[in-house]
Amino acid sequence: MLSVPTMLIRMLDEQAAHPRDVSSWRLSMLGGAPVAPELVRRARQQLGVAVSIGFGQTEASPYLTHTRPDDPNPHWVEAVGPPLPGTELRIIDPATDKPLPAGVVGEICARGPGIMTGYYDDPEGTARALDADGWLRTGDLGSLDEDGYLRVQGRLKDMIIRGGENIYPREIEDLLLTHPDVADVAVVGIPDAEMGEQVAAFVRPAAGRGLDLDGPTVFCREHLAAYKIPRIWRTVEEFPQTASGKIQKFALRERYLASHEQPPAEPTAVEL
After folding, report:
1. Does the domain formed by 2-157 have CATH 3.40.50.12780?
2. What global pTM score does this model have?
3. Where are the domains of the chain?
4. How many Å apart are CA 79 and CA 149, to the nearest integer?
């Protein structure tokens, strides 16, 4: 079965509330959005299924990388696999276009037989996405490890810059998903006059559990650098989603800004 992470989270919630015989379900393939290691753990433990993770986009037909159900890399759960046969990956500095070494986060670029030749009737869009050598700029942030496995940090446009510090929402989301009271979470940047942006966490509480936002704040404080801790916390019953189940972070940001609330200078739940 292939799904985006949000779909699998909902199925895990439903299985916990109303257990079914899922013994015929053998493999859960995940893609379309960042996959938290905690989600992989839950799927293997609660459903007894193998899990594999892929990464790509429509412009790549669509996969660029994929892990295997029996992947030999001991750190595969933190990655999205090596490039597919015939596909090349490189990481560049989005400001200078210069290649970056292993372990350094930058924009993911790809080249190979599955890459599009261009956008239909859009030469300007094609020129922005593809260079003369056929490298596709994916618009995603990530790094390559020493084994050639890709690790994705999220969309370049979703990166939060607070007081000059780059913050990758995925790191915070992956951590919060390990909190027992959190079913799902989306972290976004909210414009701030002093810091440029503030970190905001929109949390859907786990079924049947109350969520005191002091708890996740203290939890983040124990595991994250101070500048990465969300200054804004909101609970939601549902996330705005695309038709394919991806969370629309821009909609969360717009809803927050429409409320005319001013981001606090420090976390409301705890002093740092």
Report:
1. yes
2. 0.86
3. 2-157, 159-258
4. 6
